[in-house]
Amino acid sequence: MFSLRDRKLAADILTQIKKAEVHLKFMHVCGTHQDTLVKHGLDVLFQQAGIEIRQGPGCPVCVTTPKEIEETLLLAKEGKTIATFGDMIRVPGVTSSLQQIKTEGCDVRTVYSIEDAVLFAKKHPAKEVVFMAVGFETTAPTTASVLLRKPPLNFSVLCCHRLIPPALQAILDLGEIKLDGFIQPGHVSTIIGAQPYEFISKKYHIPQVIAGFEPLDLLMGVWMLMRQIQQGRAVVENEYSRAVDLQGNRKAQLVMKQVFEPMDVKWRGFPLLPRSGLRLKKKYSSYDARLKYEGMLERLASEEFAEPVGCLCGDVLRGLISSKECPLFRHECTPETPVGPCMVSREGNCHIEFLYSKKESMPQ
Amino acid sequence: MCLAIPGKIIKLDKKRQTAIVDYGSGTKRNANVSLVDVKLGDYVLVHAGFAIQTLDKKEALETLALFREMLSLQEAP
Fold first, then answer.
1. Fewest 10 Å CB contacts: which of A3, A40, A137, A192?
2. How many domains is chain B built from?
3. B5 vs chain A: nearest CA distance in angstroms?
């Protein structure tokens, strides 16, 4: 459709970055950005130019907590039909995984869209269908849109939606990693626009660029961050103007506002983050699986679930280490035998690193 | 998860807020268009079965030229 490939331009951008002789550390929060970076070798080229880029908590499946997985497993074992996106099914929980209990007879279904789950509920009125709703601001409006159209009452949502800006703030407040800039996720930004990021530049004096997913988008995004730093500026700029309107998608923002309200939630690898999650408003409580099955889920209420033994997904998600620094990477933990979610999800840092990096580079 | 694929709207049912989106190479799929204002022939980004934004064709075509211009300004003394 639109070809955004130009070898000479890419080389020119890289030359300018190299000439600047910088030593900078940036973070992005999107699996698709990580895929572009590693698949095209940009991560190595940037490193040679003095720029290190970490993924951060940009993978909805990865930041979903062990407890949320246990809630879903419990509902499946209680006879509910669980529907969710493919990657979620394979993430190991503490007691099992959705994939495992499916082989034991539980009804677990992979869907492409929440609409598939609603359609299934309509066709099977005797079944109680629970959609495990994971995803950031890109996905949350799809859940909201469906709930506004009054799906059947044998359908409910286990809401695990999360918001990106509070997680960025948490990374900065935790202070474990010193960052010089954020590459903001293009598709989250198509929904929320630029405004929700602005407080970060103001409060922490950190430059931010909303970037697309072609190699040239990321090259240009990094170049724009570098230019802001050279000029002593810290603002939100938009590299992905062909898809991102600075106001965002007003229609999607409105449906989210109608259906959800913010709540404090934990993220995998993070403490409780204020107003970083979404729950259904009272008006939609008949679709809220946590209220509908309160009695069943009660026994998990006070339980704490630990991360898998030896798994460093938490450190990867906070940007402290790269996948290769985890002792389990490529040894105990592979896409066939994942220990943590970052090796399961197509957007997980470990999965992407495994997919594209050569075995020779594995630590001895 | 936040993966979104660009495609062209080749059939639109405004009442039911659905469209058929052509992703090229013969791949066509239904998409929900309740979150966007679209017309036939528009390019959209589709995520998890929903069009989440329309693509600005003019901006897209001008992107490379804009990048080149920004780079040349930086190089100028």
1. A3
2. 1
3. 10
In angstroms, the CA A249 to CA A238 distance is 15
CA A80 to centroid of chain Cα atoms:
26
Tell me the longest C-alpha to C-alpha distance in chain B.
57
Helices and strands in chain A, H and E counts: 19, 11
- Domain range for B50 is 5-75
Bridge partners of A25? A52
Angstroms from B56 CA to nearest CA on chain A: 5
User: Checking DSSP bridges between strand A260-266 and strand A108-110, what pairing results, if any?
Assistant: unpaired
| pLDDT (tens digit per residue) in A252-264 | 999 999 999 999 9
Locate the domains of chain A by residue range: 63-163+249-298, 313-356
Give residue-wise pLDDT tens across range A288-312: 999 999 999 999 988 989 999 999 9
Quote the pTM value.
0.95
> Is the alpha carbon torsion for A214, A216, A219, A225 positive or negative?
negative
Classify domain A63-163+249-298 by CATH number: 3.40.50.11740
Closest by Cβ to A190, choosing from B45, B59, B61:
B45
Q: What is the ipTM of this complex?
A: 0.93
**Token pair of A321 as six digits:** 């280490």
